Amino acid sequence: MRLRWNELVRALEHRGDGQFAVDPGSGVVRFFDVHDLESDDPLELLDMERFLMVTAVPGGTIAEWIEMFAEDVGRPDLEEVALEKRPLRRLKERLAAEPEILERWKAVYRDHLRAEAEAWVESVGLEPENPPPWR
Fold it and tell me: For 97-105, which contacts have Cβ atoms below 8 Å and span 24 or more sequence positions?
């Protein structure tokens, strides 16, 4: 099975209705919208059962990443962003006038998501034949 690693990373950061899942046979990452998840059609539900649901990275984990980043860059003012509603958006807004620090955050965030993707694959017992493209 060839896993679509970058799609898995995007699934881990999904916020909103619906849910992503991975087909362990093909490595395809699929989005199930709210209607799929609430279906009464037994064939559709059977189709969903073969997938491994991907849960987005919890907000608390993202808040921890923001706090660590704030400490790393020596910006305690950014730590309060971690406690706000929609911390990722607030952080981007706060750093909009500081493109170098914003780009540094994006790299840190991407690295954390990639590590989460690898941990998720291991936790569900998948053994893709292809390594992550960032390795």
Answer: 101/73, 101/75, 104/69, 104/73, 105/69
* Nearest-angstrom CA–CA distance, 60 and 39: 31
In 1-135, at which residue ranges do the beta strands (DSSP E only) sit? 19-22, 29-32, 52-54
Task: List beta partners, residue 31.
Answer: 20
Under 8 Å CB-to-CB from 14, ≥6 apart: which residues?
20, 54, 56
How does pLDDT run along the chain (135 residues), one tens digit per residue?
Answer: 999 999 999 999 998 887 899 999 999 998 887 665 565 654 455 466 788 999 999 989 999 999 999 999 999 999 999 888 889 999 999 999 999 999 999 999 999 999 999 999 999 999 999 999 998
Q: Where are the domains of the chain?
A: 5-56, 59-119
pTM over 0.70: yes
